[in-house]
User: Fold this.
Amino acid sequence: MAQKRTSSSSRRLFVLMVTAGILVAGCVGAGERARLEDGGEVIERTSEYERFESLEEMAVASDLVVLGHVQRWAPGRTLSGGETRSEVVTVQIIIDQVLAGDARPGDVVSFPWEAHELRPDGEPGRTILVEGIRPPAPGQELVVFLRELPPDQERDAVVRPTHYVATFDGVFTVTENGVVRSELQDFSEGEGLPRLGIRLTGLRIEELSRQVAQAAGS
Amino acid sequence: MVVAILLGVLATAGASSPAIAHDFSGRYADSSLHTWWNGSARSYDVPVWGPMVADIMDNEIERKTAVRTAKVSYHYRSGLRYPYVDISWWADDLPAPKGGKTTCERPLSGSACDHWHVVFDDDPGQPVDGKRQKVCHEILHTLGADDGSNDGGCIGGGPEGKLNAHDIAHINGKYGR
Assistant:
């Protein structure tokens, strides 16, 4: 299932990514462009999520593991229960490769992500970093470990997601060199094991794919 | 005015010491006086979550550790050294992966934080014990706790939102009497 990738194919893929990114940017509305250009102020958020000791455990606990590109942010819903308001977007990704689970390349899957605060005028405010991770941006290539969204969740979303992120340890950017990189904050300060996502950073996509396929088949 | 000065004195009295281990290495409180209030936009939150927040602040944090707690009626008070209330809390239907969230709204130099937003995931189906554990867990984030420990207590999976010896040792190590 894993695709062999050479440096020349990586370059071709990168060119395709850039082209796709330009096309995607050209397709989104003005509000979405504004979000992409709002790279300034951020706010850090600590969020509860399930931790895993190994890639195998994380893969087994996921319904779907894919390599894909963020196609767009579809409208989701607003959180407004307290002193600040924020926007949960539905991140839609088009699958390039299925590492594990029931889907095909070309399929679109999606997950909710609290992307940014909303200013009083309703415009996007500070970008929210969840455990250090920026909202996956349109055009971005990533590997993500997903679970099917339970029927009682995100019922109010304008575009209801198909899945949710199984764990923030399982969200990786894919670099142009074909290695995965986690943006997770490392709180270990040199003591104890870093979080799983950080430990997997630097793994080549082919190796990650092989290990995930092995775990899913076990 | 007297209260403001008193709070200011108390707020500067808490010397912070280095963290004992890696799972209390997040942003920490600005002092050993931890103030809190409810910032809900919905009236529903106060009767459902309010008693548990008060219980954790009074009977777990205040009674068992070196941290003093106080429910206050201000969001910002300019006369204080750290003028924002330390914790504004509310509940909301958070997106999956489900759980609470804690955000430092006013970072200070170093790793301290003047003002936290603590949001509990509002799931009416949760048993009360589950809520209490989540309240305790999120509040400990505002004192510097990082996730990762799995030895029970409020950070390590409970049960019932009770601090264990590990939690208490970390808190007292940082905000020691």
Remarks:
- The mean pLDDT of chain A is 83.
- The two ends of chain A are 15 Å apart (CA to CA).
- The first helix of chain A runs from residue 7 to 27.
